[in-house]
């Protein structure tokens, strides 16, 4: 791919002068797309063999328009930022090439970067140094050593290129990367940037080297006293900040990688499960962000399950009651795609939030998982008993089995069984472990 390198600030100056009277993000509103046509063409070509990233360069818009010399001073500062960023990239990551440049407003430039596949972790690690070099050089050239400088911003994010030929998806992926880069560029302490860069590098290493570690907790069927199935819990590598699943998911959400993380976890959980008895189930949680991802479809799941001796009938996707806060119709449509393929559905954390009976009745989950807050001390808490008895009654009406989560004592177990609860899980039976624990 022989795109001329973004060689001079003159080109950027011309672009800025062309757009200088537009409101911020006017380009997006005008064409209803984030990427200009010529930039989309470059991205599509580069994505065939290269990884892509986005670098945002900006300054306060008020300072750009109202500086001592007016917008011409702002143009000069932006030119210095672009040139300084090019030099910093050349110095820190020589095999990373700027291949396109456009404006997202009069005081903000967007630079598209191409690099060899697999270099995302290297760029994430180098970002703090790229930012420091860019800001230092731009301020020195634009303001001189003795002049007060303006607050300038440099942000970075990788672009997900899962669908390089689909313009709508690539536009959405690029816009998401742009927003993450802008947000990162506003983090203005060196310590914060260094910490985030280290976490970003660790996250990308986990994804690249497939370092997730599932743990399995048995779900016990009370009547026969056998294992109904196992719930898979997400864990990052031990002795890292991402061993905590909440920290791992939170960071993935902040960089737009929840679906990629859950894809890898699904594959890891299935591959690590080991032999299953006929009819046993694997429960896997689905993060709310995945339900809005266009890649979230059943395609490929039956084949992957079959490679490990499972069928869609062995799989249960769990989601929490928080997800019903949005459009129930959209949620139902998503769930029906999976049910049609044989995958079952569980609603988790029931009783912990504001789940309505209407939502439960509309979704009609195959399994209703009562939250640990309802289970604790149920033998002596009349309110919790009423709630559990109501869930059992509702489950019978909609043909959904009730599973109690967080059972820690024999007293809780016998109380739940006496109320008609059919299954449960918790430390009384086993903690989540790898490999999956055997319950007798």
From TrEMBL:
Residue ranges constituting the EAL domain according to the UniProt record: 196-440
CDD domains given in the database record: EAL
Pfam families, sorted: EAL
Cited Gene3D superfamilies: EAL domain
Example of a GO MF term: cyclic-guanylate-specific phosphodiesterase activity
Highest taxon, organism lineage: Bacteria
Name recorded for this polypeptide: EAL domain-containing protein
Lineage, highest ranks first: Bacteria, Pseudomonadati, Thermodesulfobacteriota, Desulfovibrionia, Desulfovibrionales
